Amino acid sequence: MKRIVLIYGCIAGLIMGGMFFISMPMMMNGNMNNGQLIGYATMVIALSTIFIGTKTYRDRVLGGTIKFGRAFLVGLYISLVASFLYATGWEIFLASQKMSGTDFMDFYVKCQVDQLEKSGASAEKIARVKTQAGAVYGWYNNLPLRFLFTMLAESLPVGLIVSLISAAILKRKTPKTLGA
What is the number of alpha carbons within 13 Å of residue 117 lying toward its C-beta? Predict the structure, then answer.
């Protein structure tokens, strides 16, 4: 199981982590309106490897049978590997931005404020958003907290959902016969 988890987890993690270097520069040059949509769509596509990895484990290692719990664990382990690589990719992206003189959080807050101003939000609401962003910015500069947040709050929940769906679809008590 370890080999399958590492292979499919690395594929998913590299896709998600690599997307930062493709999509983020484009978003930072334009606008961030579709950033979350692109990010989560990429996660769902990348984490489809959970289904493939679980099916591979069921068919090649377990002889065509797998219980829901075991299938879910395979998906969970793939999700953990992928989420670790996703968070690592984010850290590499942030470091590359800082080296180029750009601070992503400053840019992100500026985009939020610009959106509020364009929508005609009150000065009080804009001030509140800036204050909240300042509070988040404080803990976000702590690398271990940021890494854990990125891993556990962004990609892992998507992986858990895909793992549950995959386990439900792939569970099988008896092996499939050739004639059936």
Answer: 8
Q: What distances in angstroms separate CA 162 from CA 4, 18, 35, 121, 180, one per listed residue?
A: 17, 20, 21, 37, 28
Instruction: Name the residue with higher pLDDT: 121 or 40.
Output: 40
Upper half-sphere CA count for residue 41 (Cβ side, 13 Å): 6
Q: What is the residue extent of each domain of the chain?
A: 2-100+143-170
- Give the list of residues 6+ apart from residue 164 with CB closer than 8 angstroms, or none: 72, 75
SS3 103: coil
pTM, two decimals, is: 0.85
∠ Cα 103 109 112 (to 5°): 140
Tokens of 61: 């290692």
